[in-house]
Amino acid sequence: MFSGIVETAAKVVAIKKNGGNIDITLECPFANELRIDQSVAHNGVCLTVVDLPGNGTYTVTAIKETLDRSNLGMLKPGDLVNLERSMLMNGRLDGHIVQGHVDQTAVCSAIEDADGSRYYTFRYDVNPEMAGKGYVTVEKGSVTVNGVSLTVCNSRRDSFQVAIIPYTFENTNFKNIEVGSVVNIEFDIIGKYLSRLMEFSK
C-alpha cells in the first residue's frame, strides 16, 4: 500500500525488452536501501525489485498487462519516473490510500498558470460499466496521477483538474508533463468499494 506522497523522481538508465515484458533499470538516491522482492510505486504502478546492479541503480519488471494499462511502455532512457516505497504501517497517511494498481491512462489537455501554482486538466476514456463501479473522479475527492496523491477540482464526466504547488512541480515528473503527455491514473479505492456495495444492495 502507498500514500501517493512521491519520494523522488528517478532517472531511467536502461530498458530491456524481455518477451512481452520490459525490464526497467533506474537510478535513484535510495537504491542502496532497496532489496530484492521489495515493492516500489513507479508513476503509481507497484513493481517488484528484481535486481540490484549497483552504482545507485535497481531493476524492476513490467508485464504486458501493466504496459497496456499504464504509460510505462512509453518510457525511454533519461525519462523521470515518480517513486514511492511502500508505506510503513506506523507512518502518517499524508496522502490517501493508494494501491499502486493503475486503472488507466489519461492525457493532459491543458495547463494553466495560477499565480505560482499550476492547474493541469486531464481527459480519460470513460467506460460506462466501469464508471458505475466507481472508476470516476468526484469533486474534492482523491485521485492518483503518476503516483501523486491529488485533490480533484472541476470534475467532469471524462476529465478533471488538479492544482500543482511549486514543491510538487519541482520534485516530481510534473515538471515534464506537457499538453499531450500521457499519465497514469488510479481512482480512489473507497469510491470503488462504495459503488460495489451499492450495486449489491439493489
Automatic annotation (TrEMBL):
This is Riboflavin synthase. Residues 1-96, 97-198 form the Lumazine-binding domain. Catalyzes the dismutation of two molecules of 6,7-dimethyl-8-ribityllumazine, resulting in the formation of riboflavin and 5-amino-6-(D-ribitylamino)uracil. Lumazine-binding repeats lie at residues 1-96, 97-198. GO terms for biological process: riboflavin biosynthetic process. It comes from Candidatus Limisoma faecipullorum. SUPFAM superfamilies: Riboflavin synthase domain-like. It comes from the Bacteria.
